[in-house]
Amino acid sequence: MREKDLGIWQTWTWNAVAQEVREMACGLASLGFKAFDNLAIMGANRPHLYMAVVAAQSLRGVPVPLYQDAVASEMVFMLQDAAIDFVIVEDQEQVDKLLECRELQKDQQHGIRHIIYDDPKGLRHYEQPGLISYEQLRELGRAFDKANVGHYDRAVASGEAGDVGVILYTSGTTGRPKGVCQTHASFIAAGRGGVETDRLGPGDNIMSYLPMAWVGDHLFSVAQWLVGGFTLNCPESAETVMNDMREIGPSYYFGPPRTVEGLLTAVSIRMEDAAAPKRWLYAKFMALAQRVGADILNGATVSTGDRLMYGLGNLLIYGPLRNVLGMSRIRVAYTAGAAIGPDLFRFYRSIGVNLKQFYGQTETCAYVCLQQDGKVKLQTVGTAAPGIELKIAEDGEVLVRGVSVLKEYYKRPDATAEVLDANGYFHTGDTGVLDSEGHLRIIDRAKDVGRLVSGAIFAPNYIENKLKFFPQIKEAVCFGNGRDEVCAAINIDFEAGWATGPSAAASPTVAMSTWPASPKC
Q1: Helix (H, G, I), strand (E, B), or coil: what is residue 100?
Q2: What is the pairing mode between strands 114-117 and 86-89?
Q3: DSSP one-letter code for 118
Q4: pLDDT bracket for residue 499 (50, 70, 90)
């Protein structure tokens, strides 16, 4: 592990991590934490918080990562729903929020009894009951381990593959958040499948900067980290991620569509402000990259002349561009969480970034489809991952069965029954199609697919991604159910530098546009 603190990279060996996990677990045990208890974890990406995940699992307990920016009412619901007594947090901000939550829990059946904080800054005079520092927890752990020889090792040995290994709460955008219970076996299988597909190992590095409560981070930064044995890097802050990436030079990367879109927008803005010769050179070589770059990356046949010109472009344009993006050493890069437009996808692959898509949900450990090297199609999310079986229902819904499917929703048998059928298939709620080679193409969320008055159907997400490829458009939302044509609400990106002057400054940030009614949509 590495963490940048006050401008200096701090490092942990695997032995050091194992020792801290042992001390943390024993410290929790000394406070009464036991098998099948739930431990809430909240904060930014920090080594000690990742260690807390493993410490809880070592005692056969269950880590419950929570979003640190959740509002108090939602936080209280999840704390209460998961019967949380123990919480490990990053700093004073999270301590204050939890103390507020504890006040709101006074009349509830469960309440927070112990809050352990990592960063002591600003907490010197806090004397609330049950509040201790990470270092105090480790001291308790060392004393407990010495007085209870073998307790930790027996706890680790008692764990079973079918135990719930983590509870990850859904976003709650369509109702109260639900706790997704995933077993150790599910995440280990998902982690192993990804590691073997992309040949990851101890020589690889990943930058962990996405929310710990998100399933993708748990897959990449916990499951694959433990299975593959690569190095986990935590940035100094959310604002320094790009600089920290350039320093570390990760070989393995994940970014949601919004992030990779933002990186491309930043490049486009810089090129618009460049001198005319540079703009000409960039345009010339990018045209070449768009034509042959993806083929070269896929190992397809390309003429010698184009290869030589691409090599020159790599020296003058593509290499420096990858360096600016923090991707100079990237061997494998993934994006997921929402559909990515093929134009954006093509751009990254054309400059030599091995960007691929994967597909999954919280309920499937974010592990359903993977794109394998040499078999990447811009319009699909890849083929079924190892251990996964795909099926398309009669209404077009994507059904999934296999190693990564959830065990249950926490204390919600009714909700579990709604998504898991009698044959063990998880109903994703996405509409998709399988091509002749088994590649899955996601059309849209089943409930979002629209139908015009003419009867033509359209996928809003597909049109939105086409629109968002333009650097002047920050966000787009398409709709048209029951209309003659598809409409779009456009969020203009005024920071892109193209909209200047009094008239532009006074313009609304949302404009209306229409898309031609076409069966192709």
Answers
A1: helix
A2: parallel
A3: S
A4: low
DSSP 413-448: HHHHHHHB-TTS-EEEEEEEEE-TTS-EEEEEETTT
Percent of the chain with pLDDT over 90: 62
| 181 DSSP assignment | E
Work out the end-to-end distance of the chain between its first and last CA atoms, rounded to an integer number of angstroms: 46
- For the segment 131-141, the average pLDDT, to the nearest whole number, is 97
**Cα–Cα dist 367/190, whole Å:** 6
Asked whether residue 31 is domain-assigned, the answer is yes
CATH number of the domain within which 86 lies: 3.40.50.980
Q: CA gyration radius for the chain?
A: 25
- Chain-centroid distance of CA 91 in Å reads 22
Determine the structural domain holding residue 499 and report its residue range.
450-515
Where among 159, 174, 196 does a domain terminate?
159
Q: With CA atoms as reference, report the closest residue to 28 among 74, 88, 76, 79.
A: 88
Residue 29 pLDDT class (50, 70, 90 cuts): very high
**pLDDT tens-digit series, residues 68-104:** 888 777 799 999 999 999 999 999 999 999 999 998 8
Could you give the CA distance from residue 517 to residue 480 in angstroms, rounded to a whole number? 9
Number of domains within the chain? 2
Residue 39 lies inside a defined structural domain of this protein: yes
Instruction: Write a three-state SS string for 46-69.
Output: CHHHHHHHHHHHHCCCEEEEECCC
- 114: in domain: yes
Neighbours of 128 (CB within 10 A): 11
Q: Which residues contact 439 (CB under 8 A, 6 or more apart)?
A: 377, 380, 381, 382, 383
Domain boundary among 159, 193, 222: 159
Q: Calculate mean pLDDT across residues 287-302.
A: 89
Q: Examine residue 259 and state whether it is found in any structural domain, yes or no.
A: no
Query: How do 131-133 and 164-169 pair as beta strands?
Result: unpaired
